[in-house]
Every structure is written in C-alpha cells, then in structure tokens.
Design a protein that fits this description.
Pfam families: Dimer_Tnp_hAT (PF05699). This is 52 kDa repressor of the inhibitor of the protein kinase. With 242 residues, the protein is mainly alpha-helical. The chain folds into three domains: 69 residues, no CATH class; 87 residues, no CATH class; 36 residues, no CATH class. The longest helix is centred in the first third of the chain and has 24 residues. It is flat. The termini are far apart.
Length: 242
C-alpha cells in the first residue's frame, strides 16, 4: 500500500470508533492540564450570528471542541498530506533525482525524466532538445572518475553549465529548491525574538545585527585573530585608549 493509501485508510469511516477513543484521550488530557492552572473547559458564548469563531451547536465542551477544533484540524492535515504525498509529485521528484551524476553514470540508458519534463515543460528553454542534452550529460559523467562526481543537487549545479545544458541546468536548479522548508528571513525572526528582550531594549542596531548574524550562521568558523586584525586596521584610533 502506498503512503497516500495508508493515510486514506487511517481516516476511513471504519476507524470512526478508534478516532472517538483517541479524541476522548485528548480531551481528558486537556482537562487535566487546564485543571492545574484552575481553568475548566467550557463552551464559548453562542449567538445567532458569529463571525470570529465557530458557532457550533453542541451540548458538551467535548463535542464543541471536537467539531470546532479537532475535526477541522484533522481535515487540514489530511489535505496537506495528500498534497505532499501526491503520486504525481513523487514521480516528478524521482525523475529529477535521476539527473544526479552518481545515478546517471551507473545506468545503461539515458535518465528517465519524463515526469519532470512534462511537469516543468513551460520552464525549460528548449524542451525539444532534451534527449540530446541527456546524451551529452551521460557521456560527461561516464568519463569522470567516481571520486569527482557530485553526490548532491547543490554540488551538481556548479559543473552543469547553462550554455551547454540549458534544460538540465533548469531542472537541477528546481531540484535544489524543492527541499527548502524555511527561508533565512524566518531564522532572523526567531533569532531577534531571543536577542531583543526587555533587558536588551537599548541595544544598538549595529550590535543587534552582528549578534543576529553570528547566531544565524553558527555553523561558520570565526577566527578571533582575523577579527582582531581587521578591527585594528579599521579602527586604529581606538587602540590608543587600550
């Protein structure tokens, strides 16, 4: 059974009773947690017309939160997983991976990229000559030593010259971006949340930016001696006060 089939089976009507048992455990856990802070779950005030929240007509808090929160959440998760695990997306992604040199060099035929070619046809410069590009792409990596072949999409993008492989370059560029789950700007938001606290509200913008960059790019090595030398060359006047 495929991954998408397993998801459909999990949310099938046959598992309604099991889902009810799971919801009962969730709600009991929520009641226990809120009791620790002196809060008792209750049904929000209902009116004939409601714009800012669900106006579900129920008799108990358990039924209300199940219909207003749990069921919409599960429907959203199911929709997202179906989109992510769509068989069409799997076929496109698999065909893009076939362009990696370590796979191209060990196969007898040209890489099968039919699904990706059909899906991204409008993004390619000249899709009618892809077969010729694939032939030259295979010859390029078959004549390269195993140790010199790239093993990832990011490493493959550099030796894939756009002038010689315009279509393959575009497809590999797409492959490099598909795995991105968060942008660098999102990292900066999380970092500033830790740096800009009420105890550091008077921090200057220059210092704040410097600390944020160090925190975001933590994987980079910082050589203290080079930092001191650069500071001494740019700010020689400050050394007089040392």
């Amino acid at each position: 059974m495929s991954r998408l089939g397993k998801i459909d089976a999990f949310f099938s009507p046959k598992r309604t009773e099991e889902t009810e048992d799971i919801w009962t455990k969730w709600f009991d856990l929520a009641v226990t947690t809120t009791a620790n802070v002196g809060v008792v779950p209750s049904i929000p005030r209902r009116t004939n017309q409601q714009q800012h929240r669900d106006n579900v007509q129920t008799q108990t808090p358990s039924d209300y939160y199940k219909r207003a929160v749990a069921i919409p959440l599960l429907d959203h998760l199911l929709s997202e997983m179906k989109t992510y695990l769509n068989p069409t997306n799997d076929a496109v992604l698999s065909s893009l991976f076939n362009l990696l040199p370590e796979l191209v060099a060990v196969r007898d035929r040209n890489p099968d990229i039919g699904a990706a070619l059909e899906f991204y046809e409008n993004n390619l410069a000249s899709p009618h000559v892809v077969d010729v590009e694939l032939l030259r792409w295979k010859r390029k990596w078959c004549s390269t030593e195993d140790a010199d072949r790239p093993t990832s999409a990011a490493q493959t993008l550099a030796p894939c010259y756009r002038e010689f492989f315009p279509n393959i370059h575009t497809l590999i560029h797409i492959l490099c971006t598909l795995s991105i789950t968060s942008a660098e700007c999102e990292h900066s938001f999380n970092t500033l949340r830790w740096l800009k606290t009420y105890l550091r509200s008077t921090m200057s913008s220059e210092r704040e930016s410097g600390l944020a960059l160090i925190n975001i790019n933590y994987h980079r090595d910082i050589y203290i001696e080079e930092v001191i030398s650069t500071f001494a060359q740019r700010q020689p006047r400050r050394l007089l006060f040392a």
